Amino acid sequence: MSIPDDEVAQVRAATDIVALVSEHAALRRQGQRWVGLCPFHNEKTASFSVNAQEGFYYCFGCHASGDAITFLREVEHLDFADAVRMLAERAGVVLHETSEGSAEHKRTVELYEAMAKAAQWYHERLLSAPDAGRARDYLRSRGYDGDVVRRFSLGWAPEGWDALCQAIGLSERVLSDAGLGFVNRAGRAQDAFRGRVLFPICDPRGRPVAIGGRILPGGPGESGDSGAAGRPEPKYKNSQETAIYVKRRTLYALNWAKHDIVATGEVIVCEGYTDVIGCFQAGMPRAVATCGTALAEEHFRLLRNFGRRIVLAYDADQAGQTGITRVYEWERRHNVDVRVAALPDGADPGDLARTDPDALRAAVAGAAPLLAFRVDRTLRAGDLSTAEGRARAAESAIAAVAEHPDDLVRDQYVMRVADVARVEPERLRARLAQVRAAGRDGEARPERRAGSPGRRQGSRPGLEALRLAVHRPDLVADRLEEVLFLDPLQRRTFLALASSDSLHEAVSAAEPEVADLLRRLAVEEPLLPEDPHTDPADPVLVLLVREAARRALADLQAEGRLGHTALAELTEETVTVRRNLEDLEDQERRRAAADRLVAWLVTGRAGGSPAERARTQMTEPRS
Ligand SMILES: [Zn+2]
Fold it and tell me: Are residue 29 and residue 158 in the same domain, yes or no?
């Protein structure tokens, strides 16, 4: 099942990425690149770019990036191996998959098999075992008939200590690695789930990876009694994380919901398994739930491949508070539209689906943007009958508005608050500016409009130099040094390039943020001077060296102010660095000056007294 690396590389090389992408988005040629409307986000102007030669794509709008394999995975919702297989078939590459695979791979397969076996066994228990009668009664009382039980593969874990361990014959190691059991103090294998209704949690392909269990009403957890182990049993219990189960990347029921999410472009995010099932029963089979963890960025990354409208159907108080500022950020970064369903106070979607499914459907259909939900809730909670009450309500609402990163959005809400609270918009804008300024103290908040390219730009000369290193390594390979990159991301990106033989090697070995930047650089074209007498790399290198040398000089002067360097030495070093900086502006001298400054910077990082460095490195005669 595991595909050798060289065959993956062969598949990548044999794939025409332009042809592949063209099946999903129209591309037209522009210089060395191909551009078109991004298949991963809605846009009117083309920000999706493909480098056919290197086989990378990058979107300047939503920052999606990758190679042919990533592209196919994202558009077809496949895992890595399946995407490689599909591309191999297209390109006529024959794969020799090793059936044994790596040891790690083998263990992963064992875990999937164990989970599948256990989920099936638990499911059959619920359907037919005599001791599951109480569980079946409970589920019927919740309105779950046989169809629901089968559709969601619900299960029943019997009360015994080791019923599962005995029944499915797995090694103690596999049981515990899968989170299905553990070895107790007496040294015997024991089941992790006992006396619970079970909700298997699957990956998007439908393979069970974990289990959520609920104790029956009147059971030890529900009544507050102690469990058999002497501790109260929690009402809900979730599998621990395992090699195949990462909570922040898993959404309960996505495997069942994904078709309707794709069809409608909408996903309903709930808190619990029963909320999800309630939405399905109310005719909205596009609900998922986080598994005992807060909504995380990975969840957004996963969901945006299926649908762009994300409706949070949480308990009202919680929905207003869920990691607000991060949600705004993710909303922008992943180009999704996050909304909040206004459920009646105290109601959850599971209950509402039974008592008033129309109200549940109406709440989802009328879901408001997160900020609108918060502002309206704040205003409604205020006393709008008096001038003082309205001023206080406006003040609280403006505090919520201030957290939104987009100034155009903020201003729309200023108008809304002004209308409702009958306050002059100008007064609110002034107040908003104060709140924003106070929030900025100590933390720089970059102002960026939605849709503007680049999450973070960093230094422009640094980016330009990296672009050259990607496209024309021949020009800059022996002139770039780590110390020239002041921006940490750019520095890591340079190191990734410097330590690899090819761009592909660098991308595959790099951390995600660096790989993203490399792929983006691969679809951009470097700026080269038209003057044939100039070394094409000089203009960029001069900017880069100047920036780094000025920073180092400032550091040096700070050292001097702190008394760490003798004044005479400091003055001497400062003077030589300054002279070299001046020479950078001179056509004839700049190459030599740049080389001397780079040498000074490099040895500076290596240690030694700054003054000594200055004397040895900087005192060559001016050429
Ligand atoms: Zn895009």
Answer: no
Distance, CA 202 to ligand 1 centroid (Å)? 28
The answer to whether residue 448 sits within a structural domain is no
Distance in Å, CA 601 to ligand 1 centroid = 39
Domain finish residue from 31, 62, 91: 91
Q: What is the pLDDT of residue 219?
A: 61
Name which of 366, 308, 310 is nearest 338 in CA terms: 310
**Which has more confidence, 492 or 222?**
492
Query: What is the Cα–Cα distance from 194 to 162, expressed in whole angstroms?
Result: 9
Q: Are residues 66 and 132 in the same domain?
A: no
The count of other CB atoms within 10 Å of the CB of residue 376 is 17
C-alpha dist (Å) from residue 448 to 47, 266, 361, 452, 460: 17, 27, 36, 7, 17
CA of 30 to the centre of ligand 1 (A): 18
Q: Which of 516, 518, 486 is nearest to 499 (CA)?
A: 518
Domain of residue 332 covers 249-361
Res. 215: pLDDT tops 80: yes
Whether residues 331 and 422 share a domain: the answer is no
CA–CA separation, 45 and 61 (whole Å): 9
Name the domain boundary from 361, 389, 423. 361
Instruction: Please report whether residue 464 resides in a domain.
Output: yes
Euclidean distance between CA atoms 153 and 167, whole angstroms: 19
Gap from CA of 330 to ligand 1 centroid (Å): 14
On whether residue 416 sits in a domain, the answer given is yes
Q: What is the mean pLDDT of residues 465-489?
A: 88
Give the total number of structural domains in the chain. 5
The model carries a pTM of 0.59
Confidence of residue 623 (pLDDT cuts 50, 70, 90): very low
Question: How many angstroms does the Cα of residue 508 sit away from the middle of ligand 1?
Answer: 21
Nearest CA-CA partner of 67 in 503, 401, 483, 435: 503
Q: Do residues 464 and 613 both lie within one domain?
A: yes
- Cα 41 to averaged position of ligand 1 atoms, centre (Å): 5
Task: State in Å: Cα 104 to ligand 1 middle.
Answer: 34
